[in-house]
């Protein structure tokens, strides 16, 4: 439904609040979601169950927030006397590349990137104190695969949470980088 129609319907029938979420992140999501694909892939690579992570556009920018923050914001919205529209987001962008780096860091793997476009690869630069790791310095653990470029890819997603923060005191408790740990 279009926003104007939602507002009209809400005012006519006194229906509930309207909210829009921007890229919520929760560990229960399936592997078809990029954050899960990355964290599960890095874990499998670390344990020797997968050789390489194949990705599409790793320079896409996303506004990732933790689902616990988003549920808290829903509760705060429901406590308001009057229905209103809110955008629930962090207001900060991070690239898919950064999320890959954060995930690798959690596993004690430092990676660097070489090449560009579909020829870009991610290589293990360092492994910190993980004797159980099945990867070695110099291993290629990420490759760009054109099959994973989506024809309708949105390169940049960013929400403006200023109204929610001001009206609901909706400060995020989880930073985007910490979503990797959860």
Strand content: 15-25%
Total strand segments: 10
Number of helices: 5
Shape: elongated
The CATH architecture = Alpha-Beta Complex
Which structural class fits the helix and strand makeup? alpha/beta
| Rg for CA atoms | 19 Å
Strand neighbour order, sheet with most strands: 3-10-9-8
CATH fold-level assignment = UDP-galactose 4-epimerase, domain 1
Major sheet description: 4 strands, mixed
Low-confidence segments, given as residue ranges, are 1-6
Q: Any overview of this molecule?
A:
This protein has helices at residues 3-13, 34-46, 67-78, 96-106, 162-168; strands spanning 18-21, 24-25, 53-55, 61-62, 65-66, 85-88, 94-95, 109-114, 121-127, 140-144. It is α/β, with parallel strands linked by helices and 182 residues long. The protein has one domain: UDP-galactose 4-epimerase, domain 1, CATH 3.90.25.10. It has a four-stranded mixed sheet with strand order 3-10-9-8. 26% of the residues are buried. Residues 1-6 have low confidence and may be disordered.
Compile the SSE list and pairings:
Layout: H1 3-13, E1 18-21, E2 24-25, H2 34-46, E3 53-55, E4 61-62, E5 65-66, H3 67-78, E6 85-88, E7 94-95, H4 96-106, E8 109-114, E9 121-127, E10 140-144, H5 162-168
Parallel strand pairs: 1-6, 2-5, 3-10
Antiparallel strand pairs: 4-7, 8-9, 9-10
The gist of it:
The protein has 182 residues and is α/β, with parallel strands linked by helices. The protein has five helices and ten strands; from the N terminus they run H-E-E-H-E-E-E-H-E-E-H-E-E-E-H.
